[in-house]
Amino acid sequence: MSLTINGEIPEATVDALVRLLPHDRGKDRALRWLLCFLLLLIGCQLALLVPALAPGRIIFRSAVFGASLLFLVIPGRGKSHPSAKLVPIILLILAAQVFHPNTNTIFSAVAQIALIASILAPLLWVARLPIQERTLTHLLTAFWGFHCLSSFFGLLQVYFPGRFQPPVSQVIGEMYHDSLKITLTSGADVFRPMGLSDMPGGAATAGMYSTIFGLMFFLTSKRSLVRAGALGGIAIGLFCIYLSQVRSVLIMTGICCCVLLACLAYRGEWRRTIFAGGMLAAILVVSFSWAVAVGGESVTRRLSSLIDDDMGEVYYKNRGHFLEDTINKQIPQYPLGAGLGRWGMMHRYFGNSDDLSSKPIWVEIMWTGWLLDGGLPLLLAYPAALAMACWFAWRVTISQLPGDLPIQAAAILAYNVGAIAVTFNYPYFIGQGGLEFWLLNAVLFGAVHFAKKRAAWESYLEA
Questions:
Q1: 13-41 pLDDT, tens digit each
Q2: Where does the chain cross the membrane (predicted)?
Q3: Count of structural domains within the chain
Q4: Domain that residue 66 falls in
Q5: Measuring CA to CA, how many Å separate 338 from each of 102, 103, 119, 174, 425?
Q6: CA distance readout (Å), 416 to 366, 438, 440
Q7: What is the pTM of this model?
Q8: For residue 181, which phi and psi values (nearest 5 degrees)?
Q9: How far apart are alpha carbons 374 and 380 in whole angstroms?
């Protein structure tokens, strides 16, 4: 028989409820693991920019993915994100491809499976950490801060040509260097802003994230200094997007911001929606004028094609024909996949290009990569996991959870929409972008799960 307190609540029940309270030790443990992982991810990216470390590029590129797999040994139990249910199915589909007659080499096949498993791994190991609302806020702050810093370096690379520019990735041949440069109003020819990456135009991605999450912090923070910093991050991010001349990223940034503001309006917060939308529109105009003043015709000429030409035609000329080939040619040719290790960095590092029965296949968009790696089964399973992540973020957005969680969920939903849009332009989920996607969504789920448990505890005690 269990003891009671005041003749009402069983002591065992109280003990169980007390364990749901926030504990500094648990909070520190989760935050330590997550910040360690994020710092490793950032550190490996920065190491690629140091010429002296060039011989170890493969180590730095793979270290964070190896760490994601090692984090699976983190002790603990917890409820996993809904998308985690599809992880075993995705891995089984990939494992079956090892026996495909056109799989390249066993090493490239195993490496491809390990890479995809490491990208999905946060769905599993984050669930073992005692995530709280503060944990999510700290992680989003660190994530946003890094991308703001990357955007700021993109700004410096334009204003001080050659001084803050990292070495260009060896993947890009020297013959393409001139096409990746812009001519400033000062007459200087510079690479498109790279930010803290080794790819010309790489600052555009950082600009997109600094804009999305900058808008989120502007909406959620009550501190004037943070709100001013958020607006500054948005302005610099948009400046980098304009000068990077990556039109698809500009469109995606606009879509993501519209999604975030639409979520806010759906919640009935019209005053905040109108105010934030007005501020964003003003910054769009100011940052564009700023970019034109620095970049001149190189900015207006590139972006004018979005207005002068049909957007569908612009996409088709650049990436749309790859999607068309995937649907019309490659799906009938590879309905059950083309075998593993036939594209991407795993083929480059571990594959055999001389195998005539398993020739390398060029991949420009993620949908082609999914088809080659697992055929129609993977082409259905992976997007289903993405849809579940979006659905969960949407449900949190329209919920009545206390604090900043609904707005943070709206920002992550907007980020998710942007990431999915990128799959039609780039194989986003086969690298660091995919890892960050599942990390943020898994931490959001953990924070929401904890908030619901705490609300249940408080309601029980009040009753």
A1: 544 544 545 444 444 678 888 888 988 98
A2: 30-52, 58-76, 83-100, 106-127, 139-160, 199-218, 225-244, 250-266, 273-293, 376-394, 406-429, 435-451
A3: 1
A4: 4-462
A5: 6, 7, 21, 32, 21
A6: 15, 10, 10
A7: 0.88
A8: -110, 155
A9: 10
